[in-house]
């Protein structure tokens, strides 16, 4: 039970911590100053939404996300949100691939080399199907989370930062809603595809509470660190590197490798949502669909990492608010339907 719960927890975290999150760019886009309460709200909302999605997926034993989506938004809107989810997964996976190129550029490698490496890795991963993604998440994510926490806590200690000194300033609390909404849509796609593999409610509880607490805690410490270097963030494509410049080159190398793996796991999760959905239409192996999708994505990576995040993420954060509202109200209106 615990092992299975942690397996799903790492899938949730792996879907969420990608190039945007791990680099600090996504957190800074939504949070920043006066956001402690917003991050606390995000932790609660995120755990609730994951629980609702996983329970629906478990109940329906869904092979892909469409039945789960229909249960959440209703039959009338399913078609529109189906297209929106596919576009979201497509564009965010493009962002992950661009993030791989940006990570390589930080070490003076050509942009195309970083992109080529992640494309090859994704093709190889999908030769193993869904189990390949679950296995790599269980191996990589504990190291990634531990590395990020270590750097952020060390930065907090070295800079003598106070973690709770500004709790009377919380005017940005509304940011919790678009930020949660942004991160929920890919989880509808990914968690909707594993319903037949979840065996108990306890697995769901461990996965949802664990992922919410982990992401909430890291988000708070990370955001607090970024506030201290706010003037320098504009100079960096990846804000994390503004923190890492205070540390030896070996740590920069180590964290850059972890950042790349964060990018990779999110790109893989996005591809899982896309290929399991498209497989229903094309009846081809997952790897073949993944190759075709990646070929379509490559031209879009030329727009650049930070440009894609600053333009696409806020739009989806607002558009996804409807799904967020439906998830939060689902326990209420599902009971009303039973009474009818």
From TrEMBL:
Keywords linked to the UniProt accession:
Membrane, Transmembrane, Transmembrane helix
Question: One Pfam annotation, family name?
Answer: Spore_permease
The membrane-spanning stretches of this chain are: 38-56, 77-97, 109-127, 139-157, 173-192, 204-222, 251-274, 286-305, 311-333
The record, for PANTHER family, names: CONSERVED MEMBRANE PROTEIN, MEMBRANE PROTEIN
Identification of the protein by name:
GerAB/ArcD/ProY family transporter
The organism is: Oceanobacillus longus
